[in-house]
Amino acid sequence: MANITFVKEEKEIIAADGANLREKALQNKIDIYTFKGKLTNCGGYGQCGTCIVEIVEGEENLSPRTDFEQRKLKKKPDNYRLACQTLVNGPIKVKTKP
């Protein structure tokens, strides 16, 4: 099982290993989108790059960055991920809307 802690929201959720970070956030009413992202997000298909989160702790418990993430996040720190492309396999701490 994977514990996902959302730092700003002070909320911890439990997910099965391999769970999609975006889906788990939305299922638990965690707002991961900025205003612009709410208007232009692609629905989790990895096309828009608006679901950026910062991984504060537990990067080693995530799936590797996808090719799309490499392109969209090339000017961002290594601990930034697209929630829709990220699978969780252990405990992590996440900051939304970095």
How would you summarize the topology of this molecule?
Layout: E1 2-6, E2 11-15, E3 19-20, H1 21-27, H2 35-40, E4 52-57, H3 67-72, E5 80-82, E6 87-88, E7 92-96
Parallel strand pairs: 1-7
Antiparallel strand pairs: 1-2, 3-6, 4-5, 4-7
Specify the overall morphology. globular
Uncertain regions spanning at least 5 consecutive residues: none
**Proportion in β-strands:** 25-35%
Strand order of the largest sheet: 2-1-7-4-5
Instruction: Please estimate the helix content.
Output: 10-25%
How many strands appear in the DSSP assignment?
7
Q: Decide which structural class fits the backbone.
A: alpha+beta
Note the main sheet. Answer: 5 strands, mixed
Number of helices: 3
The separation of the N and C termini measures 26 Å
Question: Kindly state the mean pLDDT as a whole number?
Answer: 94
Structural write-up:
With 98 residues, the protein is of the alpha+beta class. It contains 3 helices and 7 strands. It has a 5-stranded mixed β-sheet, with no helix packed on it. Strand 1 and strand 2 form a beta hairpin. The longest helix has 7 residues. The mean pLDDT is 94.
Key features?
single chain; 98 residues; alpha+beta; 5-stranded mixed β-sheet; two-stranded antiparallel ribbon; 3 helices; 19% helix; globular
Could you give a short description of this structure?
This protein is of the alpha+beta class and 98 residues long.
